[in-house]
Each structure stands twice: as structure tokens, then as C-alpha cells.
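[09:14] KT: can someone run the structure on this one? pasting the chain below
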Amino acid sequence: MYELRDTLQGAAEAILKKKFGSSTTVHFQVTFEDGHGDLTTSVALQLAKKVGSSPRDIAELLREGLKSVKGIEKVEVAGAGFVNVTLGTDAIIAGLKTARKACVPMKKRGSKPIVVDYSAPNIAKPLGIHHILSTVIGQSIVNLYSHQGYETVSINHIGDWGTQFGKLAVAYEKWGTKPIAEYSIDELLVLYVRFHDELEKDESLESLGRSAFSKLEKGDATLRLFWKSVVDITMRSMDDLYRRLSVRFDRTMGESFYEKLMDPIIEEGKKKGVFVAGNEGALIVNFEEALKMSPAIAVKGDGSTIYLTRDLATMRYRIDEWHPEAILYVVDIAQQLYFRQLFETVRLLGWDLPHLEHVIFGRMRFADKSMSTRKGNILKLEEVLDEAVKRADAIIKERGERIQTDDPKDLAEMMGVGAVVYGVLSQNRKMDMVFDWDKMLSFEGNSAPYLQYTHARARSVLRKAGSEGADAQVKDLTAKERHLLKLVFLFGETVEAARREHLPHTLANYLYELCQAFNSFYASDEILSATGAIRDFRLHLTACTADILKTGASILTLRVPERM
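[09:31] RB: done, C-alpha cells below
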């Protein structure tokens, strides 16, 4: 079917060029509407005004020229000028082979790598539920690129540098009760929150925090040891959560890694006139008035670095280290102005740049309260995952023998974590998300457990059959078979579209539609009791569907069970 669509498009373009003399790109889309065939194009409507002909006349020209293409059963003109093509049974079944190949990661392209920066939590604070956005969106984008044969470098750019360490050091000095190495991540958060509570009564704490970080930057031995302990405590607490989320980084590199790379960039910026004097001895970057951006601070008045300084050093390192094709920053929409300033600054510096992109996602808000780390009312990611697993476990116990699994504990983990992750990835990342327990942890409809159950159902059919069928030829297709086949056909291009646009929800929504189509096929068309070529074909279609569900889920960081 893939090859036939390419043939159709080529034939249609040749017909139009012969008639009108200019080249026209023709796209045939898969259609699922009854009476509209299998493939349709609206090129006649798009071309009519340009060539001075009626859409119906152009559509009739294409109908006449395409009806003799091998593998075509029927070509019709509909409406104002749509061309609808119905494929022969053999032609549509041929798409199965290509669809199954799309489940196998492509061979490496040999191109420059794609660097993806995501998750990026701050040290000394537990991961909150809002961290799941960058974390799983970023990982799924890495997975999409990897599946399509791109070399990737996944980076967790942790915030292990900055004034917050000065504040935490002051809090520990004033209210610490035991050696820093004995603190848990939650106890560090208590110290951080207390600092901000006390700050409301004593504003001098702010300058003490800035002073402490300045000493840390200048190499104070005691503060360096304190900082290292805090980093170690935090990373240990994060590792288990990343494992549960099927998130893996090629590099975990904190802002501190780039400490020694900042001075050369500061000097370069001054020499090129990009960094100029601002208020109170600070160095700033001014932008053209047309860009409508306020100046950005590059170095504070006391000589301390800031996010921009560190991100410039980070980008310089990544360009020199990997010579990437692109650097993607998966960061929320609130930082849109900042990334515009960062990207414009490196252009002003005159660097030879790869493609730079801020992959935005909306903010996460709570239905019942606002969230603030400073106030200590953060909803911890670990707590959300544990609650989801608890609810999944209750469902497994409630359904008793109807749930088939050798490991109920692992299935509950798979379902619970999957529900939370899918709740994020099934939504358009560009939109804001309101966190609602019932919606996020739903096990019905468009959810991870539905996808997991459908995969397990398909695998169960194949186990009972003792076979994955064969690439058998059948004379006719039922309506359910045809619908499922056309969806299977779209897997490869759906993955590519999700990668190209950096939109994981495109793949998630496709998998949901595939689940619906398979379950409808399963309910209406006999599989195990069928015989001969029909049985072989239906088993083969079932196996292909299961492969796609498992591959697609894996790209979205989800696990699927063999039994459920």
C-alpha cells in the first residue's frame, strides 16, 4: 500500500504536468469515511484557480488517468472535486509487510547527533509532579529520533549551581542539626522552605545567601564540600524515579560542570561588544529594538554568574563536543523570552550554530491549589506515582481472576506509572495542563491501561493459536479488517510526523485509535475459529497490531504486559 500510494502520487503528478505544463505536488491521504474509498486527494480544488479550470474537470482528468494503475479497484470523483481511490485487496494487504518493518528502529543515518536537554531539575529539592512534563516529553522525543535512525545525545542539565545553594548553606548553618550527609532530600527541602519563611521576617538573609554563593563560586573549601554532599543526596533520590519512568540519560551534567568555561565566554562577549556595562557594574546584552526584548544580564554586579552565563558555556561545550545537527531544549513556556534572548545572544557572538529550538510545553496547574517549592506544598512525583500504583493494585484485586498475570505487583506498577505518563503524553504539549487526580489516573478510555489491555488481548490470541499466522492472501476484506489495515498502514508516517513536529501526543492518539479498531475487529471477526488463509491472515494482522502497540508504547516510555 505504501508503494502503491507513491505510484499513484507520481502518476497523478505526471498527468497534471502533461496537461498544464507545470509541476504540482499531489498528496493522497488515507480516508476512513464510508463511501470515500481508501485514499483521497483534494488537489483538483487546490489547482483549479491557478490553471483556470474547474475542479470537477481536473478531478475527471485524474480519474480517467489513474483507473488503469495496477492495484486500483476503483477511482471516483466526489463532491466539488475530490478524487477517491479504492484499492484492491492484494494492494492493501501488501502494506502489512512495510508496517511491520516500521516497528524496527531504522539504521543509523550517519548524520550529526541531535542533542536533547530535558528534565533539568534543581538540586536539593525532590522531583515534583510538574517535573514529569519535561522528563517524559523529552524522553519520548529522544525515543522518536532514535527510532527514526538519528544519533541522539540525551542530557539531564541539573541545576546544581546558583544562589539557591547560598540560601541552603545559610539555612544549614543556622538550623542544621546533624552532618549534612545524613540529610534526606525531604529534610533539605524543609531547610530551604524555612529560609524563605524566615526571610519574610529578616530581609538580611537574602544578602547572606548571595554572599554564600559568591564564596562558593570563588572556591570556598567548606562550602564546596557542603555543595557536593547536597548534590549526592539529590541524585540518589532521583535515580529510582527515572528508572520507574523508563527515562535514561547519556549524560547528567550540572551547571557546575561549565564553571571553568564561563570566563572565556565573558571575555569574548566583552571583546566583541556583545556584553556591555549595565547598572551597578553588571554586564548586559542589548537587543535590537525590533526584537522587542528587554536587555539580558550576563554577569551580576558582584561578578557572580547567572543562568545566561552558564547556558552560553553549556551551548559552547555542546557545539564543540558533539558538532550537533540540532540542540533541543524541552522547557516550559514560561521561559520563552529567556530562550529568545539566549539564542539571539549566541547569534550576536557570531558562533557557527546548529538548529536551536525551545520545545515548549504548557504549565501544570492544580485544580485545588497553587504549587510553590518555597512554601513547601509541592506535590511530589514519587507520591503521585505511588498513589497511581495503589489504585491500579486495587483494580487488579477487584477484578480477581479476570486479570491474568504472574506478577500482580509488577502489573500494578506498569499500569499506575503508565497512567500518569500517558496522561501527560496524550495531550498536546503546547497546552496548559490542570492536574486532576481522577483524570490523570483514569483507567478507562484513552489511557495507558486501555492500551496495555489491548496489547495483552492480542498476545493472548496469538498464544492460544500457537502461531502468528502468515502473509496469506485473501479474496475479500471485512469492513473491520479494512479499517484496521489502513490504521496499521499509518504507523510509520505517524512516528515520523510525531518526531518532525516534536508532538508525542500525535503517536499517543494514533495508538488509541488503533486499540479501538483492533477491539472492534476482535469483537466482530472470528480469529481463532476461522480456517485456512482467513485464519492465517487474521492472526498475521493481530501480530502486526501487537507489534505496533508495543513499539509505540515503548517510544512513549510505557511498558505493556504480555498477559493482563
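[09:33] KT: thanks! The chain has 21 helices and 14 strands.
[09:34] RB: yep, looked fine to me
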